[in-house]
Design brief:
This protein is an alpha+beta fold and about 120 residues long. It is about 45% helix and about 15% strand. The chain has one domain: Glutaredoxin (3-Layer(aba) Sandwich). The longest helix is centred in the N-terminal third of the chain and has 12 residues. The mean pLDDT is about 95.
Length: about 120
């Protein structure tokens, strides 16, 4: 089983859910809008993927941030911003049974990651 982190109404999330459902992949969903993301989890993701890979800089939440908020240069600043504005975390973030982490949805990469 995989664990998928994200926001339920996000179009990319819907694609990931549909792909899992059509391919018989069972998953647990963690909605970071409703449940938040523990700081330790964000730090782990940042250490594994790099904080830049986790930042959704194309979404409306990012565009609404001030230039000062967008001027992130450290992992600590990125984690603080992601804790305050969970929609700036790229979606989905997926963890598999092997402890590996993937962010974003590409059907080909997703297939090799979850199987």
């Amino acid at each position: 089983m995989i664990k998928i982190y994200g926001i339920k109404n996000c179009d990319t999330m819907k694609k990931a859910f549909a792909w899992c459902d059509s391919n018989g992949i069972s998953y647990e969903f963690h909605d970071y809008k409703k449940q938040g993301v523990p700081r330790e989890r964000l730090v782990h993701w940042c250490r594994t993927l790099g904080w830049q890979a986790l930042m959704n800089t194309k979404g409306p939440t990012w565009r609404k941030l001030t230039p000062e908020q967008q001027a992130i240069t450290t992992q600590g600043q990125a984690v603080a911003l992601m804790m305050e504005h969970s929609s700036v975390i790229r979606r989905p973030v997926v963890e598999n049974d092997g402890g590996q982490i993937l962010t974003g949805f590409d059907p080909t990469v997703f297939d090799s990651f979850v199987r």
